[in-house]
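Anyone up for a design puzzle?
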């Protein structure tokens, strides 16, 4: 293996960790909703899968689509995170309403989509280069899965320490991260 290939793989590892860090941050907030370990495993796997699918689509469309599409995808992801976080905060004050931001079914799809949209943008740019697609996708999926698991487990531990305020904190983390995506 040449020095160029090792450098490319190291760059992809750092990119995978960077892409997975948003999943970690968001999962920290989601983990505060008293999520069971089985659900944490499923959520991590689904987010990892989305972190492979989205850049793959981006890579396929990378040469055909302009860079502006990637900005709209990021914007949509930020708005989804703010919406989910706001709903968590409001539901913490009204315990009679059913939570919409559950990492189950369509809620899990929206959650995974919102944290993996930035990887679509990365895929667009990677599609314009000659990156090793399979290696990149495996690294992106693995890093985001592991970081999601870590975030949700830490969030679960923090929930025990914070009690009723944990859902407000979790929603605030989601909102803050979404606002950071939108305006940062």
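Challenge accepted. My sequence:
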């Amino acid at each position: 293996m040449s020095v160029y290939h090792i450098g490319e793989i190291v760059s992809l590892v750092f990119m995978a960790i960077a892409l997975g860090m948003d999943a970690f941050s968001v999962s920290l907030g989601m983990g505060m909703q008293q999520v069971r370990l089985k659900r944490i495993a499923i959520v991590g796997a689904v987010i990892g899968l989305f972190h492979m699918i989205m850049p793959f689509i981006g890579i396929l469309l990378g040469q055909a689509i302009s860079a502006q599409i990637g900005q709209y995808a990021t914007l949509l992801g930020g708005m989804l995170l703010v919406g989910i976080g706001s709903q968590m905060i409001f539901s913490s004050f009204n315990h009679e309403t059913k939570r919409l931001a559950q990492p189950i079914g369509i809620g899990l799809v929206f959650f995974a989509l919102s944290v993996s949209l930035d990887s679509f943008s990365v895929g667009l740019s990677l599609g314009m280069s000659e990156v090793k697609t399979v290696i990149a996708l495996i690294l992106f999926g693995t890093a985001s899965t592991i970081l999601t698991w870590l975030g949700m487990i830490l969030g679960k531990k923090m929930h025990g320490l914070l009690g009723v305020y944990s859902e407000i904190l979790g929603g605030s983390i989601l909102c803050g991260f979404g606002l950071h995506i939108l305006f940062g």
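A detail worth pointing out: Helices lie at 3-30, 37-61, 68-93, 105-127, 133-162, 166-183.
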